[in-house]
Design brief:
Blueprint (H helix, E strand, L loop, with lengths): L1 E7 L3 H12 L5 E4 L4 E3 L3 H6 L9 E3 L8 E4 L3 E5 L4 E4 L4 E9 L4 E3 L6 H5 L4 E2 L7 H10 L3 E6 L10 H15 L6 E6 L9 H14 L2 E3 L2 E7 L4 E6 L8 E4 L2 E3 L3 E3 L2 H4 L28 E3 L12 H19 L12 E8 L2 E7 L21 H15 L7
Helix pairs in contact: 1-8
């Protein structure tokens, strides 16, 4: 099989690029994607917080593939950048002129011993999976007292604000139920602060203080003992601080993450990187060694936050630079690292953190002071963003 543009992945980045290419009249496009269902994953936080049904996050992949794009329902297993071919799980080889790697990110549950068992128990969950997000809400609404732990792993993860989002939704719910004072809330973060952008860091410090959440910085959960309902917290900072054991009644856990294994094992990945992301220029999103290969979204090595908002800004850059490349011109589009993290700090209040590679706030919403929490959570997070995603972003219009 041969094609002009091969896109690996039918997630947010893959569909957005395919739609934009078709809108620019680029032909002979193939999407390589094994899944039958496409998920709008940001809504899983709302599901875990009891604010949305999980079914709203799913649509058939067949309804998202743009017209004029061929869908090969197989998974990629290897790429040969020299021969410009990708091999699929059933042995098919697809030859490409231009390749877009939009393969997403891999959840490495086994990287933390006991984590998979913990999130599938009666005392743990994770909003990072479709089947588990409703379980998160079941545990939150039934908790009246005890210790609740919300953790973030070290290394890049998709939607780095997710560990905090569910903690604030839970805290606000427990306060409204009159049980927050009976629950010890512990947040475990691998970072030295609440957020990498100073203005948002200060706001989130106020939020955790208001809820009485105990935050352990420069720390990571490194082991779960499900039988004892006990986790191990290791220090990531300087010094020889001994590990700490903490018993829990509820834990919301997130695994370490990395590029899919087949990317790690390929020549596309960053050399000597254990996480194996596709080695691209952070502005052009073109591979640094193979000029006919581009990457978008979570699988790329760009140092921005891995969010859907980042992909929305990356997509026009990738598409324009592919067209420039096909037509023999210098690449003209540049991505500045924009990302957005809408953080619900209560069930009706949201902090819309927008920033770029400079780690400075870059607000884009008119008439809204996004440097402070605002009371438009229901409208923005639950309605406006999903509508923008399905009707505009997935159609290549936003």
């Amino acid at each position: 099989m041969k094609c002009n543009v091969l896109i690996i992945g039918g997630g947010t980045g893959g569909i957005a690029v395919a739609a934009r290419l078709r809108n620019k009249n680029v032909d002979d496009i193939v999407i390589l994607e094994p899944a039958k269902t496409h998920y709008y994953q940001p809504i899983w936080t709302l599901v875990g917080g009891g604010l949305a049904p999980v079914e709203q996050s799913a649509k058939p992949m067949s309804k998202l593939i743009p017209k004029g794009v061929k869908w090969v329902q197989q998974a990629a297993v290897s790429v040969d950048a020299q021969t410009q071919t990708v091999k699929t799980a059933d042995g098919t080889e697809i030859e490409y002129n231009r390749l877009v790697v939009a393969a997403g990110i891999q959840l490495d549950w086994d990287a933390t011993p006991g984590m998979w068992e913990a999130v599938n128990s009666d005392h743990g969950s994770s909003n990072y999976l479709y089947d588990l997000a409703p379980h998160t809400w079941d545990l939150i609404k039934n908790m009246k007292s005890g210790t609740a732990v919300f953790m973030q792993p070290s290394g890049p993860i998709k939607c780095a604000g997710a560990p905090q989002k569910i903690a604030y939704l839970a805290a606000d719910y427990w306060r409204k139920q009159g049980v927050l004072d009976d629950i010890r809330m512990v947040m475990i973060l691998p970072t030295p602060g609440m957020f990498g952008v100073p203005v948002f860091k200060k706001e989130l410090e106020k939020v955790v203080a208001g809820y009485g959440i105990e935050v352990k910085f420069n720390s990571e959960v490194t082991n779960f003992d499900v039988a004892k309902r006990e986790l191990t917290i290791s220090n990531l900072g300087e010094g020889d601080t001994p590990d700490e054991k903490l018993q829990y009644d509820f834990v919301h856990a997130l695994p370490r993450q990395s590029a899919p294994d087949w990317i790690k094992d390929s020549a596309l990945s960053v050399p000597d990187s254990p996480q194996g992301y596709v080695d691209v220029d952070k502005n052009t999103l073109q591979h640094v060694r193979y000029p006919n290969i581009f990457a978008i979204g979570d699988c790329g090595s760009t140092p921005n936050s891995k969010t859907g908002a980042a992909i929305r800004q990356q997509a026009p850059t990738v598409v324009q630079n592919i067209i420039d490349s096909l037509e023999g011109r210098e690449l003209s589009a540049s991505y500045g690292g924009y990302a957005s993290c809408p953080l619900p700090v209560a069930r009706d209040k949201i902090l819309i953190a927008e920033f770029d590679y400079t780690l400075e706030a870059t607000p884009t919403l008119p008439l809204i002071n996004t440097l402070k929490p605002v009371k438009d959570f229901g409208l923005f997070k639950r309605r406006m963003l999903p509508m923008m995603y399905w009707k505009f972003m997935m159609k290549g219009r936003a």
